[in-house]
Amino acid sequence: MEHSLSIIERDIVIIGAGAAGLTGATELRKAGLTVAVLEARDRVGGRLHTDDIDGAMLEIGGQWVSPDQDALKETIAELGLETFARYREGESVYINAAGERTRFQGEIFPVSADTEREMVALIATLDELVSEMDPDRPWAHPRAVELDQISFRRWLEEATDDQEARDNISLFIAGAMLTKPAHAFSTLQALLMAASAGSFSNLVDADFILDERVVGGLQRVPILLAENLGDDVFLGQAARTVRWGDAGVTVLTDDLEVRARRVIVAVPPVLYTRISFDPPLPRRQQMMHQHLSMGFVIKVHAVYETPFWREDGLSGTAFSPYELSHEAYDNTNFEDPRGTLVGFVSDEAADGVFTVSAEERKQAILTSLSHYFGEKALTPVVYYESDWGTEEWTRGAYAASFDLGGLARFGADLRTPVGPIFFSCSDLAGKGYQHVDGAIRMGRETAAEIVAGLGA
């Protein structure tokens, strides 16, 4: 017996119920257009996901809000959500290559005077390069082609002989943001990461980048956006085929056929190949999307009976390019008596811990946290690893970035529509790149472009 599809007609169909897709749908509805949002998962939010793990509320995906993230802050306010400041009182911890642990305050790590001088000089040089970049047009940087042909690792090697300075500056981009080895992405891509946050100095300042959290978790944003869209959000509906032409689009899932004037593909570019386009996308897009790939990071949650590090005068903030968990923060929930630490294991280090058993991996990661916070870190009451690399509908974290030479070569076409097909997600953003703020900006911009084009 042939399976018949339910046919739906809308002005715009959106593929993906993350922050970009839901924001785009919201803006289109405000403009008087009808929408349908198709989501492959059984939940909304994409890389925003709050879940209850063994009685603890954990933000498995993105969670922090920065002062400059206007689009996200406006959305949070519009939805009536509350925020709270990340705990940061007390001293931070740094561990050097020799394994020596030092408590410190401020942004610059406690290193030798020579290494500190080199780090300050590198940050100043990077800030100067970033000041010449429009994050929405990184390919227009006066040295774009040159900087896109040299890996960030090589640029650092040419900039200083101080290994510890190189390791620490690399940590902010490679480990903490792009989650790829510094030899795998270009200096131009590194500058975009910094420019998207306003400056390299902002990336170095954890108090700026990781300023606030949303009470109840950041997934509240897409959940509430979806609630406002009501029956126009369809879960468990992976888009299999997009048929497109001058007359509009037809999007097919296993159960639905959605006919529309335009489609917004609001999923990470690494998932575009999961959709069959008929006719195929043009040559430019086919090539471009092959040069984008996800990074890889494990976000580790360790919940303790109390935030014991605070009693020791520690903020919970810790850094070391030489530790398995290269950074850690106090991630205690709003008004929660228990204490939560979150740590991160990225790129090749993350590859390595998945070659051992789950128990060995847990012990290795907790041992790393104990180097920062002492033996009490070894015995959490709840332990969980966010592994986005196994997520079928994400395939990595935090976001997609270009390989060497890709940004200067293809960047200008990254957001270029193809006929009735528009592309929109945080991976494609300039300001707010790879953050929820960028997703919301992209959703707004894409909706505005469609509305203008339709004359709605």
TrEMBL record:
Residues 20-450 form the Amine oxidase domain. Keywords: Oxidoreductase. FAD binds at E39, A40. Gene3D superfamilies: FAD/NAD(P)-binding domain (3.50.50.60). Pfam families: Amino_oxidase (PF01593). Its cofactor is FAD. The keyword Oxidoreductase applies. GO terms for molecular function: oxidoreductase activity. InterPro entries: Amino_oxidase, FAD/NAD-bd_sf, Flavin_amine_oxidase, Flavin_MAO. It comes from the Bacteria. Substrate binds at F344. Belongs to the flavin monoamine oxidase family. This is FAD-dependent oxidoreductase. It comes from Cryobacterium cheniae. The lineage of its organism: Bacteria, Bacillati, Actinomycetota, Actinomycetes, Micrococcales.
